[in-house]
Amino acid sequence: MQLYLNALAEARPDTLNVLLLDNSWAHRAQTLVLPWNVVLLFQPAYASQVNPSERVWEDLKSDLAWERFASLQALQDQIVRLVDAYDAPTLHSLTAYRIS
């Protein structure tokens, strides 16, 4: 996480960079040193509905529900196949918020 924050600050030195994060322990590590141009904004606890990637995961789970896999590798392979099958319009429909 520290390496990412440093790289982001260096790549975008002339902007204030706000990252929306979940409450993972890695995002709140006491040893993180925030660069001057990076701000961390944390989602409320248990607010997966505000994270667009959660909608993709929900869609993936609907295709994986009740499946049995012979191994972890078989599960991983199936997830890769499902993700590779997404096209841009489908991903947009799952992750885009309406702008009113």
Give the DSSP E fraction (strand runs of 2 or more residues). 5-15%
Distance between the termini: 34 Å
Number of helices: 4
**What structural class results from the helix and strand content?**
mainly alpha
What are the low-pLDDT stretches, counting only 5+ consecutive residues below 50? none
Arrangement of strands in the largest sheet: 1-2
Mean pLDDT: 86
Q: How many strands appear in the DSSP assignment?
A: 2
The 3D shape can be described as elongated
Radius of gyration: 17 Å
Question: Which sequence of SSEs, written as H and E, runs from N to C?
Answer: HEEHHH
State the share of residues found in helices, binned by percent.
40-55%
The total tally of domains equals 2
Largest sheet: 2 strands, parallel
Structure in words:
With 100 residues, the protein is mainly alpha-helical. The protein folds into 2 domains: 2-47, no CATH class; 51-95, no CATH class. Helix content is 45%, strand content 10%. The protein has helices at residues 2-11, 52-64, 72-85, 88-95, and strands at 17-21, 38-42. A two-stranded parallel ribbon has the order 1-2. It is elongated.
In short:
The chain is mainly alpha-helical.
For this entry, give a set of tags.
100 residues, mainly alpha, 2 domains, two-stranded parallel sheet, 4 helices, 2 strands, elongated
